[in-house]
Amino acid sequence: MKGKYYPEPFKIKMVEPIKILTEEERLKKIEEAHYNLFYLDSEDVYIDLLSDSGTGAMSTEQWAGMMKGDEAYSGSKNYKKLVSTAQNIFGYNYIQPVHQGRAAEKVVMPIFLGPGKYAISNMHFDTTRAHVELAGARAIDCVVAEALDTETYSPFKGNMDTKKLVELIEEYGAENIGLIIMTVTNNSAGGQPVSMENIKETSEIAKKYNIPLMIDAARFAENAYFIKTREKGYEDKSIREIVLEMFSYAQLFTMSSKKDAIVNIGGLIGIKDDEELYEKVKANTIPLEGFVSYGGLAGRDMEALAIGLEEGIDYNYLKYRIGQMEYLASRLDEANIPYQYPVGGHAVFIDAKKLLPHIPYYEFPGQALAIELYKEAGIRTCDIGSFMLGNDPDTGKQLESPFEFTRLAIPRRVYTQSHLDLVADALIAIKERAESIKGYRITWEPKILRHFTAKLKPIE
Ligand code: P71
Fold first, then answer.
1. CB within 8 A of 172, min separation 6: which ones?
2. pLDDT (tens place) for every residue of the chain, 460 residues total
3. Is 126 in the pocket of ligand 1 (CB under 6 A)?
4. How far is the centre of ligand 1, averaged over its atoms, from the C-alpha of 335 (Å)?
5. In the chain, where are the structural domains located?
6. Cβ contacts of 440 within 8 Å, gap of 6 or more
7. Residue 100: CB within 6 Å of ligand 1?
8. How far is it, in rounded angstroms, from Cα 368 to Cα 64?
9. Residue nearest to atom 18 of ligand 1 (CA)
10. Residue 120 CA to ligand 1 centre (angstroms)
11. Does 216 sit in the ligand 1 pocket, CB within 6 Å?
């Protein structure tokens, strides 16, 4: 049954025209882009679902705030507002702005990790994994088994497998685990939420073994919405109360503010109360990102971020936002198109392994389907599977991802119901000819984060 579409809790004041190229043009463009969607020019894309990161539409309040940018080198008004807003929302004493999520990772990871050390996470997103490895350490994913079964309902498929976490700590030795990272929501598993109970339990294990717990907070507000709507005891709590409790269980967080804080650029590091750690973070931020009171951002960016943090935790906005995913997923249900079920908070993750069972992981089914969506209707998406995962840093061998997803990431406050209908129709058309879709091979790739720039060719 077609799901309900919650009306946008805003009206549109400014528009950006988009157009679709002809099929012939699209086939030429994707070939010229070496079958890597990151190489496409955005003007050649009709509906851009490559990422929900930095692609949202700012509000009138945020744009007005941009005009209040205090561009002093040090101690700007916007910095002070950002720090006090974030202190309030997260309940942490120390807040360090940085230019985006991976910058936060670059500043924080070397403080905790080095050669011989490990980070354990419910799932590392790709940049997080890259920064663990750049610090000389190794990343271990520890998501619950329910996540691997994309067809069966489970309310919190993003959870940490806490039993396995304890086994891993015992196996590798607590002294070698530099960090436990809780990614909310769990992007790589399909934008799946983590329950409060699971955050709490993970924090108790971390405390017992004296390992710091860090939250990768990119989609903290969407996670809080799922806790409110799915976890017993939280139905009457506000998103704000839930966020405060979530963060109370960790010692620090890194955040890409380009997601739930609805800005086009920005990131944060938060430290609950460890002053010594804050000193280390500042010492790394200054050479890498800029002085403490701007961390790679302009004053106006910090103003927009302070406002976006508040807008991002508004319940009515979140209901509309997650409602968009539920609506698109309901259209796919009608046509039996497999996706990570229940649908996640920022994207619909099509199960390309199921839709294209004839393509093995080393021929990248998630990428093959992403290419097909562009060919079909000018829709740009991305692979969250073996193509993104890359090669083993020690052996250089292609890793097999537990998932082969094509991610339809929905930018915030950007697309309407009819855009989503168009996406569903394109997928339904592709399903009809799924057996004829071929896999791909890589003709060139860099060592780290290869999916951004690798070149591919279809397998004939
Ligand atoms: C996403 C992104 C951005 C991205 C990354 C790689 C390929 C395509 C797009 C970024 C995240 C994230 C989590 C959980 C940290 C970062 C890095 N996600 N943690 O999903 O999802 O943040 O992009 O601000 O550096 O499209 P950053």
1. 118
2. 678 999 999 999 999 999 999 999 999 999 999 999 999 999 999 999 999 999 999 999 999 999 999 999 999 999 999 999 999 999 999 999 999 999 999 999 999 999 999 999 999 998 999 999 999 999 999 999 999 999 999 999 999 999 999 999 999 999 999 999 999 999 999 999 999 999 999 999 999 999 999 999 999 999 999 999 999 999 999 999 999 999 999 999 999 999 999 999 999 999 999 999 999 999 999 999 999 999 999 999 999 999 999 999 999 999 999 999 999 999 999 999 999 999 999 999 999 999 999 999 999 999 999 999 999 999 999 999 999 999 998 899 999 999 999 999 999 999 999 999 999 999 999 999 999 999 999 999 998 889 999 999 999 8
3. yes
4. 30
5. 23-52+314-458, 60-311
6. 35, 363, 364, 367, 368, 371, 387, 456, 457, 458, 459
7. yes
8. 42
9. 53
10. 18
11. yes
* CB of 187 shorter than 6 A to ligand 1: yes
101 lines ligand 1 (CB under 6 A): yes
Instruction: Domain 60-311: state its class.
Output: alpha beta
Q: What would the 3-class secondary structure string for 242-271 be?
A: HHHHHHHCCCEEEEECCCCCCCCCCEEEEE
- Can you give the pTM of this predicted structure? 0.97
**C-alpha 322 to ligand 1 mean position (Å):** 19
Instruction: Return the residue matching tokens 């704000």.
Output: 240
The verdict on domain 23-52+314-458 having CATH code 3.90.1150.10 is yes
Cα torsion for 68, 72, 73, 74, to the nearest 10°?
-90
- The CB of 258 under 6 Å from ligand 1? The reply is yes
Distance 257 CA to ligand 1 centre (A): 10
Among 93, 51, 7, 415, which residue's Cα sits nearest to residue 219? 51
Q: Which atom of ligand 1 is nearest to the CA of 38?
A: 8
User: By alpha-carbon position, which residue is closest to atom 3 of ligand 1?
Assistant: 53
Q: Is the CB of 218 under 6 A from ligand 1?
A: yes
Give backbone dihedrals phi and psi of 167, rounded to 5 degrees, phi first.
Answer: -60, -40
Catalytic residues: 73, 125-126, 216, 218, 259, 451
Q: How far is the CA of 452 from the centre of ligand 1 (A)?
A: 12
